[in-house]
Amino acid sequence: MSSISRRRFLKIGAASASILAAGSYSGLFSEALELTMGGGQVSRTTGKFRKAIPSTCLLCYARCGIYGYVENGLLMKIGGNPEHPNSRGRMCAKGQAGINLLYNPDRILYPLKRAGARGEGKWKRISWDEAFNEIASRLKLLMEKGHPEEFIFQSTRDITTQDFARRFLNAYGTPNGLVNTDLGKQNKRIAQELTWGAGIEVNDVARTHYMLNFGSNPYEAHLLRTSFAQRIQEGRITRVVGERVHHAAKLVTFDVRVSQTAGKSDEWFPIKSGTDGLVILAMANVIMKRGLYDREFIEKWTNVSVKELIKSLSQYTPEMAEMISGVPAEEILRIAEEFASSNSATTISTGGLTKHYNGTYNERCILLLNAITGNIDVEGGFCLPRTYQLNEPFPTPPLPSIKSELIHPGDYPLAPHEIPYAVLPMIKAGRQKAGIYMTYQHNPVYAGPDCSQTEEILKDESIIPYYVAIDSSMTESTIFADIVLPEAIYLERWELESPPAFEMVPFISIRQPVVKPLGEVKSFMEICIELAKRIGGGMEKYFDFATPEDYLDAAISKIDKLVDVGGLYYLMEKGVWCDKDEKPVYRSYEKNGFNTPSGKFEIYSERMKAHGFDPMPAYVAIPEHKDIIKGELILTTFQWNVFTHQDLANCMWLSEIVHNNPIWINIETARSRGIKDGDKVEVRSRIGRLITMAHVTHGIHPYVVAISDSCGHWGYGRIAQAKHFKSKDPNTQLIWWEKQGNGKHPNPIIPLRSDFIGGGQAWMDTVVTVRKV
Amino acid sequence: MIRKGEKRKKRYGFLIDLRRCIGCHTCSVSCKAENGVPLKVFRSWVKIIEKGKYPNVSRSFLPSLCNNCDSPICLKNCPVKATWQRNDGIVMIDEHRCIGCKYCMASCPYDVRHINPLKKYVQKCYWCYHRVDKELVPACVEVCIGRARIFGDINDPNSEIAQLIATNPVQVLKPELATEPRVYYIGLDLDVMDPMKGWKGWRHDDGGE
Ligand code: SF4
Ligand code: SF4
Ligand code: SF4
Q1: Chain B residues lying within 8 Å of A668, measured CB to CB
Q2: Which of A171, A256, A728, B39 has the largest CB neighbor count within 10 A?
Q3: Per the domain annotation, does B136 fall within a domain?
Q4: Chain Cα centroid distance, residue A2
Q5: So what's the architecture of A112-183+389-488+519-547 in CATH?
Q6: What is the pLDDT of residues A258-279, one digit of tens each?
């Protein structure tokens, strides 16, 4: 990669100036000599421009465009890539701290083999050759015994690498690849696939006139975080776009807690946990009854009629919704009218809506609301995702013919995407025998519910006879592994990404090593290629790639326009490609209909009916909340703006900002229990208890308490555990929050509990008691 | 009036449009990354407060950094002239001259100076002058998610910052002190300015040391 030249640099500058003008208030200043927004970085001491390597962040699912700025082979800084169509040069605090992970003193840099009892933490360094041979021979044995399905693989993210993982698992012959593991969006995905055939929506917030938010906190955490939050802010400001004036959109939030988003919304409505669906249905009822619906869309593109809708929704009165949710009926009425009478409007919703026992139903209600108001895939509305499908290089392995309970659990007939946190308990229950359990970037003990149960399973060699963990450092789970393979992190490896495009034109971005991988770490793809070769038995022919780049090259080979401009070389140089001639087109469904059996937007779902679920968007009460007794509270979890829910606490710049996670409790609720701000309290659920500090606030529903789920690591790196220590980096000695501790993880007291349709973990439903200790 | 061909004196200013800020702390972290700022101290920080009584609750943010004042009292109070001001207004500290006496820290009304815990001299935000000199915006401006941070030449009437200042009511912190701060705010909230209100740091139990 050539280092960034001054000329090219000025070019980027000019481009960003024009973006700036379009997004600005007046556009007048475009003649001014502005400084460049990004795409370059200089050394503080020499003033020289650093080598700039474009790549893609992966510290969350948003996958922003970045530049790695490198000097003498060392990564000095991560910056944003202004040409990335989604993130447009911006990043979040996490992305900025990625360098903390790369050079983390607790990274594993060599393959390790267990040298003591399982979980004892004794390790022996081994060579890759030894590691590969051992794993390959065991995998081979399993295959030869005719039980490839006993190879169970689980990883956290749904990315390009997961295509590769699928390929590996298919070639090996096991159906048990659990590669979509929870991003908390499982219920959302299932509801959406059933209704309109896509797995995620794009909220066109930059162009909308109204944003109605149920339980989402995009200012702090969202699947498409930085790209999304910046557009929400744009939509909320009056500005000139081309010839038009865009008037500031209103943001209304329903949430149990005053998050950054709720606290900055035009209106915040506290709502009882898990009752959002009912409020939405009541809104839909109001809209139908008052004739504020979009008749054309309903009659032409959905599979129900206006008449049927009016009839079936009439049971959900605002008064009934008020009784159950606590949201005043007149507010439900008013917001419904505002939403329906806006020129364009979109809902925003994530975990607060879907991480419940009734999450799939709730998401169906959201889809309904957008559909009846005609906001589906229109400018400023609730849009279908635009992405590129990558090509699976030939030859492709056949799908395994063996059926698996783990992948298609009989009790969740509509959840074809596995129930990630139930995997280990299902193995324990004998629903699938495990021979080899392999994880990649997955920490089921910490990330899942009921941590001690997961620990016990992983510890038990009669349940999990052999455990291979591919990870960048020791975690609460890898400690139980038999072999740990050191993973090349996102700054050291090759991948392709095509996240849903906010500008409605799909694009492809590349992840490439910005530095030479540290120590002996290898990327997951390299590991698969080598293992396939050593296992043999026909597997190797699907992995005839000298390097991961070869695979990527083949993966984009069918996108002619990209190939024309240089293919992978173009991506390596620019970081991202999109078809400049393609213009955003809304109402894309008009071409081929929706990707559902009827081609319609299926408000009425035959598939749900066939399995005994309500075919119409519906509300069911959360069983454990129905018989809640006086004094009991509902525990919810959330993420701070500097964390995701798993592995970033080892970044010192982030942990310095948030290292503690007291329990949020409403001021009245606290008073009635004699709890003052900062007091030690005991939080008890039916499976356990924890002691933490109280954060007494006005910003939470009186029946709800909240603990963030990013702190309180007990088996991750030293920084995540708030320890100060000596290392090459003098900063590790300055860690000053050791006394304050690293907080308490709530998951150990959250039982395994799934949505009864989608199977996603019901993170927000746990009933607890809280008392001063 | 500046005639054609005449050189206008550059004067940098910094504007934070709080209507667009999402309180994400990207600015706080990007500063650490850009300037090698050690743990324990911040040159850029976002104060977050919660306001109101249930159920009428809201949040306010106050990103803060050195104001690179036009009349920097820190400069006047430095006994060894380690603090000096560039023509474009950026207030600098000569790290070789600084004797670590902390007079400037005591005199800055904005509490934005700190002793580097590893090197024992005083440091602060200097609007990434090393970047600005290469025509790059400061690091925190580059990545600001809300595009709430605008940096530029306030003497250039066509610049975005000058335009925004001209067309919006703007505020500065502690205007009564005659320090003539050059960090402007749009939509500044009175409560978040009050040092006694809200959480001291990000969380009420923090605040550095
Ligand atoms: S939002 Fe932040 S963590 Fe997520 S991809 Fe973007 S920069 Fe990385
Ligand atoms: S980066 Fe921008 S949006 Fe985020 S806290 Fe700082 S000023 Fe606010
Ligand atoms: S904000 Fe403080 S340190 Fe910065 S120039 Fe003003 S007086 Fe000096």
Answers
A1: 54
A2: A256
A3: yes
A4: 33
A5: 3-Layer(aba) Sandwich (3.40)
A6: 999 999 999 999 999 999 999 9
Residue type, B9: K
Ligand nearest to the CA of B69: 3
Q: How many domains, in total, are found in chain B?
A: 1
CA–CA gap between residue A327 and residue A329 (Å, rounded)? 6
Laid out side by side, the sheet with A74-80 consists of A51-56, A65-71, A74-80
The CATH architecture assigned to A202-383+593-610 reads 3-Layer(aba) Sandwich (3.40)
**Distance to chain A for B190, nearest Cα, Å:** 16
Ligand 2 pocket test, candidate residues B149, B151, B184, B188, most atoms within 8 A of CB:
B149
Q: Whose CA is nearest to atom 6 of ligand 1?
A: A64
DSSP string, B51-102: EEETTEEEEEEEEE-----SS-HHHHT-TT--EEE-TTS-EEE-TTT-----
Question: Is the separation of the CB atoms in B73 and B108 below 8 Å?
Answer: yes
Is residue B46 within 6 Å of ligand 2 at its C-beta? yes
- Give the CATH number, domain containing residue B124: 3.30.70.20
Q: Which residues contact A648 (CB under 8 A, 6 or more apart)?
A: A59, A94, A97, A101, A642, A654, A710
CA distance B149 to A640: 22
Model confidence pLDDT, tens digit, residues A204-259? 999 999 999 999 999 999 989 999 999 999 999 988 888 888 899 999 999 999 99
Element (H, E) at A704: strand A704-708
Whether B53 is covered by a domain: the verdict is yes
Q: Which atom of ligand 1 is nearest to the CA of A92?
A: 2
pLDDT band at residue B4 using 50, 70 and 90 as cut-offs: low
Q: Nearest chain A Cα to B207, which residue?
A: A657
A302 CA to chain B: closest CA distance, Å?
37
Between the alpha carbon of residue A498 and those of residues A385, A506, A539, A574, A593, the distances in Å are 10, 7, 28, 15, 23
Map tokens 């299902």 to a residue: A426
Would you say residue B177 lies in a domain?
yes
Under a CB-based contact definition with an 8 Å cutoff, are residues B47 and B53 in contact?
no
Decide whether any atom of ligand 1 lies within 6 Å of the A59 Cβ: yes
What distance in angstroms lies between residue A35's CA and the mean position of ligand 2's atoms?
19
Residue B85 lies in a domain: yes
pLDDT digit string (tens) for A306-349? 999 999 999 999 999 999 999 999 999 999 999 999 999 999 99
- pLDDT for the residue numbered A29: 40
Q: Take residue A743 and report the two structure tokens written for it.
A: 């907080």
Q: Do B54 and A269 touch (CB under 8 A)?
A: no
Q: Is the CATH number of domain A623-772 2.40.40.20? A: yes
One DSSP character per residue, A514-568 reads SSPPSTT-B-HHHHHHHHHHHH-TTGGGGG--SSHHHHHHHHTTT-HHHHHTTTH
Region of residue A342 (left: phi > 0; alpha: psi -120 to 50; beta: else): beta
* Nearest C-alpha in A relative to B149: A37
Residue B39 and residue A656: Cβ atoms within 8 Å? yes
Q: What SS3 state is found at A188?
A: helix
| DSSP-derived secondary structure for A31-45 | GS-PPB-SS--B-TT
For A384-404, what is each residue's pLDDT tens digit?
Answer: 999 999 999 999 999 999 988
Range of the domain at B82: 12-193
Domain ranges of chain A: 112-183+389-488+519-547, 202-383+593-610, 623-772
Instruction: Say if the Cβ atoms of A653 and B32 lie within 8 Å.
Output: yes
